[in-house]
Amino acid sequence: MGNIIQLARDSLTNLVSRMGTERDKASASFYGTPLISDEQLLNAYRGAWLPRKIVDVPAFDSVRAWRDWQAEGREIEDIENEENRLNVRGKVFEARIKARLWGGAAIHIGTGDADLFKPLDVERVGKGGIKYLTVLTRRQLSVGEIDRDVASEFYGRPAYYTMTAGDKTQVRIHPSRLVVFTGNAQPDIEFVGANDFAWGDSVLLSILDAIKNADSTAGNVASLVFEAKIDIIRVPNFMASLKDEGYKQRLLERFTLANTAKGINGTLVLDKEEEYESKQASFATLPDVMDRFLQIVSGAADIPATRLLGQAPSGMNATGESDLRNYYDRLSAMQQVEMTPAMYRLDECLIRSALGSRPTDVYYEWAPLWGLSDKEKADIFKLKSDAARALAGSAAGTLLPVEALSDALVNTFVEDGSLPGLEAAIEEYVSIGVEL
């Protein structure tokens, strides 16, 4: 019986309203192929603040806190110095912006090799082996053949990229020499061309209509401000008198003089037969309308309004904290799922270029995007200290050596930044024979 009711409801037809028939207005709705030229993308990015922020904000936030290297103290310093020499953070930021705007960008790992078509051999990179990093967009790099070898690391991706050099020479680059970032990924190569599939879409493509609606609304409201107050004067036999050219001139002179007098002393002098009325536009609901369109843009861009628009959250007890946490959690996942795999070869080369070798215990973690307040840090520090003290004094303390527990606690405080310099201070005291 339930299936019959469901079938009847799904096939409901109303001939009067034409609902469910071939003349149903809803049946005329369909999705067309979204297209936007590079010129429009550039104009939107350069000339409108919403598209620029939608492109820049997530790219900036993804590298804002950057990453924390885990290694020996001297090794960390060398790696960070190498990052600064090559401006790795700045290059990734630039590539992320261009990938989001154009649909794709790549960082070329320059090692000084003459033949760029050969795969990059990470093991051969020595100290200072990375000479430069260059950001290239899909406008400078064209896609070659798609790798169809299922056993290949680059299956489903270009087997090579072609770059046009300054003298118009076509240079083929192996994908292992590129850190590739894409915009909005394409669903399937069968529905789009190889070049579009390899790079992806601009992030503005799917939300440009929402941006235009918000901008148009703001523009209309701005125009309405100039017509917030309109004076209406009814003149007897006005239309009939307009046939007289002299009347037109006298009419203009008369109301110019009347408007001047009104502006000086607030008095409008009219004939007894004429009527005067002033109308004012209401702006009471316009802020809500504008906010609603901006919220649609915020949702389409997947950026909280508190971050995109820089506005305070509305509503009782609203802080916007949950929205920002969700946003930062998504960016953190993006760092792990997209950025870390894309930067793998660059990071392996970076370690060797900084240290001359590849210690097995060197790795990094993305720094937290959500910054804790001093009070929150103090509360966490106290909780960890109390937990370690409780473990040492409980039955578990007989199973956990105090030295091991102490080392774990020192590592915890060093990694979360609770006690900066603790590790170096301990090594210094141990070196001079001070018993801890």
Explain what this protein looks like in three dimensions.
By secondary structure, this protein is mostly helical. The chain has 3 domains: 240 residues, no CATH class; 78 residues, no CATH class; 64 residues, no CATH class. 48% of the residues lie in helices and 11% in strands. It has 16 helices and 10 strands. The strands form 4 sheets. Strands 3-2-7 form a 3-stranded antiparallel β-sheet. A 3-stranded antiparallel β-sheet has the order 4-5-6. Strands 1-10 form a two-stranded antiparallel sheet.
How confident overall, as mean pLDDT?
A: 83
Number of domains: 3
Strand order of the largest sheet: 3-2-7
Task: Summarize the biggest pleated sheet.
Answer: 3 strands, antiparallel
Which residue ranges are poorly predicted, with pLDDT under 50 across at least 5 consecutive positions?
4-9
Q: Estimate percent helicity.
A: 40-55%
- What is the global morphology? elongated
Topology as H/E string?
A: HHHEHHEEEEEEHHEHHEHHHHEHHH
Radius of gyration: 33 Å
Specify the structural class.
mainly alpha
